[in-house]
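Researcher: Good morning. I'm working through a list of sequences from a screen, and I'd like to move beyond sequence-only analysis. For each chain I'm collecting a predicted structure so we can compare shapes side by side. This is the next one on the list. No need for commentary yet; just the structure.
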Amino acid sequence: MSNVNGANGKGANGTGVLERTKEEATAFREDFAEIGRDLQDLARKEVQLLRAEVMEQVMLAGRAAAFAGGAAVIGLVVAIFVFISLMFVLDEFLPTSVAALVTTLVASATAAALAYFARETFRNISVTPKRTINSLKEDAEWARSLLQSNKR
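Model: Good morning. Structure tokens for this chain:
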């Protein structure tokens, strides 16, 4: 039988199996290092996205709180005058105690409605970084597919 690779272990094109294996190992190591750098860069960008998204939500919450605080102070002053005026108007038609009771009930209903609207507004604020989570899921899929394609 004759040796297919020749006596010196070289193929028809003159390249030895060992030399080709070293080249493939070097190429694999370089690919793997590049994937590692890409993943590090991706992780840094994801952290930046997370920070930006959280800051955006914090700013939104701060703005909502400032508006709510200002509205509460001004609304309290206005409400006092409105309810005193209502009580004086009702006092013309009803005994003073009944006028005060009706005014108190109207004020209570108004406060309950405002509390409901404030609660609904604060419910719209999300502390979960949804875009970052979705982006991380996409990145994980990308990394899996990249690693699987390099295995082949």
